[in-house]
Each structure stands twice: as structure tokens, then as C-alpha cells.
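Continuing the series of single-chain predictions for the mutant panel. This is the parent chain; the variants come on the following pages.
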Amino acid sequence: MAQDPPPPGPGRVTSLHLAPRTGEPTFRVAQARAVTGRGLAGDRNYWAGEGPRPRRRGTGRASGVCDVTLIEAEALDALAREHGITLTPAECRRNLVCRDIRLNPLVDQEFRIGAVILRGLKLSEPCARLERLVRPGLIRGLLHRGGLRAEVVRGGTIRVGDRFLPLPHDARPLLPSLPAPLP
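Parent structure:
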């Protein structure tokens, strides 16, 4: 019997992961510092360069730049149930695993996790690289439910257990905060 989709919010962060470099395994952390215009400090997607982050890096489907990646815990549950592929939250290679929140509707929307405000950029569809790093069958099993790519609008600390709430259009901050100085 099919389960009802998760409600649109509030949700919560159930797991938080970083990887120091592209292709390296992710590791679980209790909290991470989200920096406006840069990403999660200590993660492979963190922009440590001079000036503003470039909007693209190279060509191809996965060339879009993002600060944070998210996935629904319910998508991982469905992957196991429907395709027999069990992934730990670290194996899915997304920074945040969230429960009780639908991510796909958050493209081009702002949302709050704890005190941090993020903006959904685009869906994070599974790719051949993810399938090679983890295991065969992921592309089919996570198609259209592989998560969300987002940028940090207002930085702060994200913690496991933080509430996750979509922001109504009129509740969005008028101006993003300035990027934090580099460590």
C-alpha cells in the first residue's frame, strides 16, 4: 500500500554530513556552519576562493554550483522498500537528510532551517557519478526524488534536530546578510 506524501512542513534535520573533498566519503557531524554565498564550512562544495562564488563551474548537467544539498529521509525509505537498495544517510552524499518536508516544491523558494535561510536552486537528480560512488540502481531508484540543491541566503549554524520551515513569500528577508569573513 502506498504511503501518503510527507506534509509540506514543518520538518526536521535528521542527519548532517560533510565531505572534505569531491569523491571522498561523507562523515556525520552534529552541526555545521552555513556561510552566506559560500556553503557549509569544511565541505567539498564550500567556496573558499576570492570574491563571489561563480554561478557555474564547467559544462554539463552537474555544473551548477550550490552551497548545500538536501534529501528527504522518506526518499531513502522508498529506495529500500521499492528497489531493495538500502543507503545510510552518509552514503546518499547529501549534506542534509530531512524528514517530514517535501523538497521538490522548494525550487525557487526560501526556507528556514534553525536560524539559517536557504533558497532552493534546482532538483538534485541522481547521476552516474553518484551511482559509481555508491551502488548500481540509484539513478532509477532516486529519479525525481534525489533531493534539492540550495544556496545560503542567511548564514548561521545548522544542527541535527533543527526545524525546517518553508517561508511564506512575504516573510522573506529583504536583503541577504553579508558573507562572513573567511576563517
